[in-house]
């Protein structure tokens, strides 16, 4: 089948790879003029890691990744409040765990289809019109294309989702936070292979050293206002206003943003839908069921969803049966992950100083008590076995 995939991030290229393996003709359509680089650092484990192994890209991801040894929470004057050794996480995941920039992961996935799958950069799907034999897809650039199926892999703010399902009811559920990420050159100190984090009520800022003398900053802000500033300068101003006077290194970190060209800032939201397909259009990844950026496993789950969708299309002659099987297989897992992400929000971004103190106490307990491996195993394991398909 000829299958249009909107979005060349994580889910889209993963799906294209497996569809190609199954003998289909996928076409990636990406609004950006080229692959997006940079972005925040993702912790990569679980189902997504298993998909990466089946794609043969695990060695490349391990080479690009960072084996973070500790997460350290600090006070306003820089003293260490809590130090979480990540050795326990590696034990319970059997060392199938790494951390790497999202852009590096996306580029590695795309390398498996580069030159083998048609990719249209700098364009997007503007219209979807179903007919008896397929789908007429109108691109924003004016081109008309014919496909058998359309896949929305275009993220949290999916345009394909809006085209296929309409705007009401709105499936996006704002979780009350904004998140921002930026990479700067030459920042000191570095603290290699350690994630340093500082929290104030409703605010969190962290840094991690990257190769090439770069440092990634991650900001999380509780906000009743889900409005994301439109311009780069307005986004920088927001972060300076909220973080610069909180203590620790916050003033130096926000000053360093003056040299940043590419700042990521977005809402922390979930997508919850009654169904992930309509007619010949289906959604995958964040477009279908965003866990939220703070859920911890959204990137890997997007890869797993793409793999299962491709597998079910290979296993069923009728796309309607495939879409139904895809959703039936994954919906319980996704619902559980979304519920867990809502619970973990208080850990990522406590509202009070008491909440921060309790979170840091829990970090210290994990290092001190032997049985916490059982708790970590529950957190970092999935009650889902990745199916085997003939792909």
From TrEMBL:
Q: Which domain of life is it from?
A: Bacteria
Domain FAD-binding, by residue range, is 3-318
Key words of the record: Monooxygenase, Oxidoreductase
* Keyword presence, Oxidoreductase: yes
- Keyword Protein transport part of the UniProt annotation: no
Question: Which GO MF terms are attached to this record?
Answer: FAD binding; monooxygenase activity
Q: What is this protein called?
A: Monooxygenase
């Amino acid at each position: 089948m000829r299958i249009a995939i909107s979005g060349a991030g994580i889910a889209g290229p993963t799906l294209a790879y497996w569809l190609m393996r199954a003998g289909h003709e996928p076409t990636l359509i990406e609004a950006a003029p080229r692959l997006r680089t940079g972005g925040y650092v993702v912790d990569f484990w679980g189902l997504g890691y298993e998909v990466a192994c089946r794609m043969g890209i695990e060695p490349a991801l391990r080479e690009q990744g960072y084996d973070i040894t500790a997460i350290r929470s600090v006070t306003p004057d820089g003293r260490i409040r809590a130090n979480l050794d990540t050795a326990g996480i590696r034990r319970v995941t059997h060392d199938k765990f790494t951390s790497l920039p999202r852009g590096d992961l996306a580029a590695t996935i795309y390398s498996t289809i580069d030159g083998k799958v048609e990719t249209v950069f700098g364009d997007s799907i503007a219209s979807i019109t179903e007919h008896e034999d397929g789908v007429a897809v109108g691109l924003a650039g004016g081109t008309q294309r014919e496909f058998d199926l359309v896949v929305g892999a275009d993220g949290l703010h999916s345009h394909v989702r809006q085209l296929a399902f309409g705007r009401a009811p709105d499936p996006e559920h704002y979780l009350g936070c904004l998140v921002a990420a930026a990479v700067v050159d030459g920042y000191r100190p570095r603290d290699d292979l350690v994630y340093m984090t500082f929290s104030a009520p409703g605010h969190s800022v962290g840094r991690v050293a990257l190769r090439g003398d770069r440092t990634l900053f991650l900001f999380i802000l509780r906000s009743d206002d889900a409005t994301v500033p439109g311009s780069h300068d307005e986004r920088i101003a927001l972060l300076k206003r909220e973080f610069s006077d909180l203590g620790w290194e916050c003033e130096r970190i926000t000053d360093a943003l003056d040299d940043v060209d590419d700042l990521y800032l977005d809402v922390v939201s979930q997508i919850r839908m009654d169904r992930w397909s309509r007619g010949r259009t289906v959604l995958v990844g964040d477009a279908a069921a965003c866990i939220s950026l703070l859920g911890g496993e959204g990137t890997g789950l997007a890869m797993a969803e793409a793999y299962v969708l491709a597998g079910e299309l290979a296993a069923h002659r009728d796309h309607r049966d495939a879409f139904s099987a895809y959703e039936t297989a994954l919906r319980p897992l996704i619902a559980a992950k979304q519920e867990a992400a809502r619970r973990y929000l208080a850990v990522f971004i406590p509202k009070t100083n008491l909440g921060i103190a309790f979170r840091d106490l829990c970090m210290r307990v994990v290092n001190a008590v032997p049985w916490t491996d059982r708790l970590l195993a529950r957190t970092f394991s999935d009650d889902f076995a990745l199916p085997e398909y003939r792909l």
